[in-house]
Amino acid sequence: MRRRKLLIGLAAIASGWTTFATADAWTFLGRRKVRWAADHDVIHVGAQEARFDHILIKVEGNGIYIFDLDVRYSNGAPDHIPMGLHIPQGGQSRVINLRGGDRNIRNVSFTYRRPGDFDGPATVELWGQQ
Questions:
Q1: Is the pLDDT of residue 36 over 70?
Q2: 80-89 contact pairs (CB < 8 A, 24+)
Q3: Average pLDDT, stretch 96-110?
Q4: Taking the alpha carbons of 51, 53, 84, 122 in that order, is the dihedral positive or negative?
Q5: Which one, of 128, 110, 123, lies nearest residue 42 by Cα?
Q6: Of 53, 103, 57, which Cα lies nearest the Cα of 76?
Q7: CATH number of the structural domain spanning residue 118
Q8: Are the C-beta atoms of 49 and 118 separated by less than 8 Å?
Q9: Is residue 8 part of a domain?
Q10: Which residue range is the domain that position 67 belongs to?
């Protein structure tokens, strides 16, 4: 497990991914391009073998306001996480602790609103940490 985290960390450094302040490795879980107005989208995590303790949201291209997240675990259990957070272009959310310890994630749905500046699309990325 430590070797895997080390390899992920080295790959992240080599690719220029240095925006996270923690030394622990983060795993990319998925991304979604968001629309212009208020909407609801889902990031399907898929068949991740790993279990995650924490998630984090990154935003590229344009800022968004996230109202809430709904995490659905592989056993079907839901986890509603109120956010009420504006994430600017190039920014990220706080580290979000998942309830019940490390969990396999099936998908994460989010409700959001885009600012009315029409500066182009925004992309939301979901990251997980073990």
A1: no
A2: 83/110, 87/57, 87/58, 87/59, 87/63, 88/59, 88/63, 89/59, 89/60, 89/61, 89/62, 89/63, 89/119, 89/122
A3: 85
A4: negative
A5: 110
A6: 103
A7: 2.60.120.260
A8: no
A9: no
A10: 24-129
> Which residues, 6 or more positions from 68, have their beta carbon under 8 angstroms from its beta carbon?
80, 81, 82, 83, 84, 110, 111
Distance CA 71, CA 5 (A): 24
Minimal CA–CA distance to 127: which of 35, 57, 60? 57
pLDDT of residue 75: 83
Residue with tokens 């220029």: 16
DSSP assignment of 10-42, as one string?
A: HHHHHTT-----SSS--EEEEEEEE-SSSEEEE
Tally of domains within the chain: 1
pLDDT per position as a tens digit, 39-68? 888 999 876 666 889 999 999 988 899 999
> Do the domain assignments include residue 78?
yes
Asked if the structure places residue 16 within a domain, the reply is no
